[in-house]
Amino acid sequence: MRIDSFSAPTMATWQLTRDCNLACLHCCTDSAPGRALPHELSRERALSLAREIVAAGVPYAMIVGGEPTLVPHFAEVCRILSDGGVWLKVETNGMDFDPAALKGLQVRSVQISLDGATQGVFARQRPGGSLEKAVASCRAVVAAGLPLEITFAPTRLNIQEAPAVIGLALDLKAFRFNTGKLMRVGTAAKLWERLEPTDAQYADFRALLDRRKGELAGRLELCYEPFSIDEEIRGRGLEPSGTLLILPDGRVKVAAPLPYVCADLSRTSFLEAWDAYRKAWSDPRVLNAAERLAADPGLSAKANAWFSLDSLSHDLPAVV
Ligand code: SF4
Question: Band of the pLDDT at 312, cuts 50, 70, 90?
Answer without folding.
Answer: low
